[in-house]
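hiii so um. not sure if this is the right channel but i have a protein structure encoded as tokens and i wanna go backwards to a sequence. like what aa goes where. can anyone help
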């Protein structure tokens, strides 16, 4: 009985709307645009967020990075030799006490001038272990990376740009390079690697193409831990003693990162009298990216919700006009026995049909976000190659199912909320006055 009555009311509502096709289409258009906007904006936001998180993952979400930092309490006297930072003993203690660590790569780096004949290149000399190659996703253009047998030997691997500037026209493998007073034999040249972005506030942006690599043991023997720097004229020097610049720890599972980082921090605090180190967990950036994505989605939904709100106001305006135009019809229905509830249901049914139609069409268009975006991007790129920024070329919209359900739910809610007032106004009409209306 109820189902039959409901279907009859919906059928009557559809017939009434079809009498004013253009008006009904324009009313549904506002809901259509709002629903589509919600899905599209969230899809774009998800795409941007996904790219950002993938970039963070490439930095190593399972990594824990320890860095030596100069403590603020250190005396800055020019004659003083300061000792601070990570120690080789720290590395040994960490490896002995933490079975969750899958790999550990200690490094010591320093800016040095590399010389070949009359050519000079200011590069970053990095003393490291063989695991540094894989950890930083380096590739060899020619020659080889140093092996365990090369420990302590004067061999060096040049980064791409460093090799090109020192040896612009010859193969650098087998050639000699002078670093300060030491001479190294080049055993390999890396392929171009490019730059990496800074991580938080503890690591600097890094350009790998201007590096030179040797084994950590060779660095210790040839360069040493103590570095003296001239600070003024005459014999004014400032020195510092640093054993390790950085230790990168890799754990086997991302769920172990926080616990391992806390244990490492406790070990360093126990054996360091001053805070001359920093513990950086890139996994924290994933959490920050997730929080940013949530805030971004909320903002986009609010913006798109405004479109739905405007569409709802438009529907209420049209339904109020419809009530005025159909006053005599309302009077006749009341005269032949229709209750106020019947009138309310009739106009609510018409409103819900409009919003449902607009919402469903909006969802259908929203689900076509990816092919429409690809077609539009390809068309604009073909007509105006320089029009779109680089980020647009790499962006891939990602439909979020929750946005589909939410946009449809909001569109129906808007129809219900903004349809109640016109429906109640129609139902409260005096039947006698309504019959007199022309």
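sure thing!! here u go:
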């Amino acid at each position: 009985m109820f189902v039959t009555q409901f279907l009859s009311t919906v059928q009557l509502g559809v017939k009434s709307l079809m009498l004013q096709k253009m008006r009904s289409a324009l009313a549904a258009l506002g809901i259509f645009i709002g629903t589509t906007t919600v899905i599209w904006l969230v899809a774009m936001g998800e795409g941007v967020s996904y790219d950002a998180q993938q970039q963070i993952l490439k930095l190593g979400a399972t990594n824990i990075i320890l860095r030596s930092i100069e403590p603020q309490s250190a005396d800055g006297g020019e004659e003083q030799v300061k000792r601070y930072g990570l120690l080789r003993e720290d590395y040994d203690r960490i490896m002995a006490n933490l079975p969750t660590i899958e790999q550990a790569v200690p490094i010591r780096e320093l800016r040095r001038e590399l010389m070949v004949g009359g050519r000079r290149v200011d590069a970053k000399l990095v003393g490291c272990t063989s695991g540094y190659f894989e950890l930083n996703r380096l590739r060899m253009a020619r020659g080889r990376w140093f092996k365990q047998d090369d420990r302590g030997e004067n061999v060096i691997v040049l980064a791409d740009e460093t090799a090109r500037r020192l040896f612009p026209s010859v193969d650098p493998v087998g050639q000699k390079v002078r670093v300060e007073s030491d001479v190294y034999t080049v055993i390999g040249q890396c392929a171009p690697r490019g730059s990496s972005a800074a991580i938080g506030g503890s690591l600097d942006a890094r350009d790998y193409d201007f590096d030179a690599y040797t084994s950590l043991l060779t660095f210790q023997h040839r360069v040493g831990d103590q570095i003296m720097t001239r600070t003024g004229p005459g014999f004014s020097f400032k020195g510092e003693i640093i054993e390790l610049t950085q230790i990168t720890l890799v754990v086997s599972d991302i769920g172990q990162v926080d616990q391992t980082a806390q244990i490492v921090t406790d070990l360093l605090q126990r054996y360091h009298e001053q805070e001359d180190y920093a513990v950086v967990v890139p996994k924290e950036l994933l959490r920050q990216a997730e929080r940013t994505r949530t805030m971004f989605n909320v903002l986009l939904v609010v913006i798109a919700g405004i479109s739905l709100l405007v569409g709802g106001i438009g529907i209420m305006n049209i339904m109020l006009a419809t009530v005025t135009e159909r006053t005599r019809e309302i009077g006749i229905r009341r005269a032949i026995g229709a209750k106020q509830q019947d009138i309310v249901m009739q106009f609510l049914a018409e409103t819900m049909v409009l919003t449902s139609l607009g919402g469903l069409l909006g969802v259908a268009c929203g689900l076509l976000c990816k092919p429409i975006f690809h077609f539009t991007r390809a068309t604009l790129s073909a007509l105006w190659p320089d029009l779109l920024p680089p980020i647009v070329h790499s962006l891939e919209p990602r439909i979020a199912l929750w946005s589909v359900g939410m946009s449809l739910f909001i569109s129906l809610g808007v129809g219900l909320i903004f349809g109640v007032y016109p429906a109640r106004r129609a139902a409260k009409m005096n039947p006698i006055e309504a019959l007199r209306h022309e």
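oh and The first strand starts at residue 63 and ends at 68.
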